[in-house]
């Protein structure tokens, strides 16, 4: 009986010692990478630097690793990249914290000359025209190499009236 009493006291002492209210911090959520290009393709002109700046969730106390052909080229949240040689460069971004990791692959297309980028403000919502009215479109052209400052063009559209 005395032996049973000693075991009960030892168990009570151990359970009290183990439950001091100090619960270890739970692991954070793993990081999530959102690239700033919906296609994960970044065009660049040979010799010009571009900056790739993804957004992150749960990246507090995280480490960042940008790699190209297995070689580390960056360790910051954003990457500045340039190449004198035209071609396609596949870069992997890995973000790691205590809760896990996320990884994204992106491509940088380096061109001898940068192709123009044309956007049409408002086109994503569509256009509605009344019969007899006009719509003037003003596309925005970026990287116009041949006529700098003269890339803006206007186009007038009239509804078809049979």
From the alpha carbons, calculate the radius of gyration and give it in angstroms: 29 Å
Helix content: 10-25%
Gap between N and C termini: 108 Å
Order of strands, widest sheet: 2-9-8-5-6
Main sheet specs? 5 strands, mixed
The helix/strand class is mainly beta
List segments where confidence is low: pLDDT < 50 over at least 5 consecutive residues: 145-152
Overall, the morphology is flat
Report the portion of residues in β strands.
35-45%
The number of distinct β-strands equals 13
What's the overall average pLDDT, rounded? 80
The number of helical runs is 1
Write down the secondary-structure element order.
HEEEEEEEEEEEEE
Q: Helices, strands, pairings?
A:
Blueprint (H helix, E strand, L loop, with lengths): L1 H17 L13 E3 L6 E5 L4 E3 L2 E3 L5 E6 L2 E4 L4 E3 L5 E11 L2 E12 L5 E3 L15 E3 L2 E3 L12 E3 L5
Parallel strand pairs: 2-9
Antiparallel strand pairs: 1-4, 3-7, 5-6, 5-8, 8-9, 10-12, 11-13
């Amino acid at each position: 009986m005395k032996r049973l009493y000693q075991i009960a006291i030892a168990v009570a002492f151990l359970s009290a010692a183990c439950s001091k209210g100090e619960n270890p911090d739970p692991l954070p959520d793993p990081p999530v990478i959102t690239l700033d290009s919906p296609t994960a393709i970044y065009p660049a002109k040979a010799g010009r630097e571009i900056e790739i700046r993804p957004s992150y969730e749960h990246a507090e106390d995280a480490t960042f690793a940008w790699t190209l052909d297995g070689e580390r080229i960056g360790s910051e949240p954003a990457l500045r990249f340039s190449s004198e040689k035209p071609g396609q460069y596949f870069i992997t971004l890995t973000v790691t914290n205590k809760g896990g990791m996320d990884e994204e692959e992106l491509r940088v297309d380096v061109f001898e000359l940068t192709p123009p980028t044309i956007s049409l403000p408002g086109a994503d919502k569509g256009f509605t025209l009344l019969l007899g009215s006009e719509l003037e479109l003003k596309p925005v052209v970026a990287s116009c190499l041949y006529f700098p400052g003269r890339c803006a063009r206007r186009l007038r559209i009239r509804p078809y009236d049979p």
